[in-house]
Design a protein that fits this description.
Layout lengths: L1 E6 L4 H13 L3 E7 L19 E5 L5 H11 L3 E4 L6 H6 L1 H26 L7 E7 L23 H20 L3 E6 L1 E3 L8 H11 L3 E4 L5 E6 H14 L5 E4 L4 E3 H15 L9 E4 L14 H7 L7 H14 L1 H7 L2 H11 L3
Parallel strand pairs: 1-2, 1-4, 2-3, 4-5, 5-6, 6-10, 7-9, 8-12
Antiparallel strand pairs: 9-11
Helix pairs in contact: 1-7, 2-4, 4-5, 6-8
């Protein structure tokens, strides 16, 4: 049995990953370490919470005592680090929180893993530390070309800078200590359980509430969109077969302008759920500071070396996603609490 520490596993991608792994592998035991900040939601994991291969620990990745005690008690073989503050707007408001969690938290996990694995002689076995990162560490692209694993890091926001810093620390543990690590850098994820500060669930929620749909600037920022199940499969492939020390870009080859995403959501909800929803709800607001214009991922390395490629096209994935939110309105209501409403007004209310 592989004993796996998943950090940030009550968040959007982490919870989808835990569910995917437990459904597809009989030989793993997962411990989910999450501090349950605003975007962590144990309701995401209801379908597997009684699985005897799963356990939850509430705690922070920056807590050295807790992390070391978990390694001693659980003897982890793999670490998958999803734990991160991840929203660019929040990073602009308060970058220090991002540095603490994304940089110091990663360093704490690395230190505990290295110490435990060295002391136990586990390097002789197939242990691994997998850092889940983002294409935002590469900066911004022009109208052509793609990010590859050799693209220089050029982060433009406090969020992406904190993730790039964490990536470099992870790399240093491979270079210095020969610690078996991998780094994955993915494009924009979408799918069930995503907190409604992100573009797609935000627009779905606002459509259902007949609220304005805030679009930054001209809305022509282009992102590559990756369905969350495809991302989970890619991480699974890297865990099992990724070459230690290597970086793998994970992209969906689904580039779309933000305004087109919004119009797609509006059209689908209008046709299937609420004809009162229309493009009249779209409101262009002042652009985000340092807003990168285009991201695009070249996933050829993971395709050629590990046999992974995205299976869900955007036209299919966006319908699956909207239908999930339409069928789970109670989930959405439960995460829209007072703190989120205050944050929403702070970000969009004066733009």
């Amino acid at each position: 049995m592989k004993k796996v520490l998943v950090t940030g596993g009550a968040g959007f991608i982490g919870s989808n990953f835990i569910i995917y792994m437990l459904k597809n592998h009989d030989d793993i035991i997962i411990t989910n370490l999450d501090s349950l900040t605003y975007s962590g939601n144990l309701n995401n994991l209801r379908e597997i919470e009684t699985d005897n291969r799963y356990s939850f620990v509430r705690g922070d990745v920056t807590d050295e005592t807790l992390v070391r005690r978990l390694f001693e008690q659980k003897d982890f073989d793999w670490v998958v680090n999803f734990a991160a503050e991840s929203h660019v707007d929040r990073a602009i408001l308060n970058p220090n929180i991002f540095i603490l969690t994304n940089v110091s938290g990663t360093a704490n996990l690395l230190s505990a893993a290295r110490e435990h694995w060295e002391n136990s002689g586990a390097y002789k076995n197939s242990v691994k530390f997998l850092q889940v990162s983002t294409d935002e560490v590469y900066g911004s692209l022009g109208p052509t070309g793609y990010f590859t694993e050799s693209t220089p890091l050029d982060p433009h926001s406090p969020y992406s800078a904190s993730k790039a810093s964490a990536d470099l620390i992870v790399k240093s543990y491979f270079d210095t200590y020969s610690m078996p690590v991998n780094i994955t850098r993915c494009s924009n994820n979408y799918g069930p359980y995503q907190f409604p500060e992100k573009l797609i669930p935000l627009m779905i929620n606002n459509c259902l509430s007949h609220k304005e749909l805030p679009v930054y600037g001209d809305g022509m920022q282009i992102r590559d969109w990756l369905f969350v199940d495809d991302h989970c499969k890619a991480i699974d492939a890297v865990l099992h077969d990724g070459v230690p020390g290597e970086v793998y870009n994970i992209g969906g080859h689904n580039e779309r302008a933000n305004i087109d995403i919004v119009k797609t959501i509006v059209r689908y909800i209008s046709e299937t759920a609420d004809p009162a929803v229309g493009e009249h709800l779209i409101k262009h607001v002042k652009d985000r500071k340092g807003h990168d214009r285009r991201y695009g991922i070249d996933p050829e390395k993971i395709k050629n070396e590990l046999g992974w490629q995205p299976e869900t096209g955007f036209d299919t994935g966006i319908k699956i996603t909207i239908d999930w939110y339409l069928a789970n309105k109670l989930w959405m209501q439960q995460v829209i609490d007072g703190e989120y409403e205050q944050y929403y007004q702070k970000i969009y209310g004066e733009r």
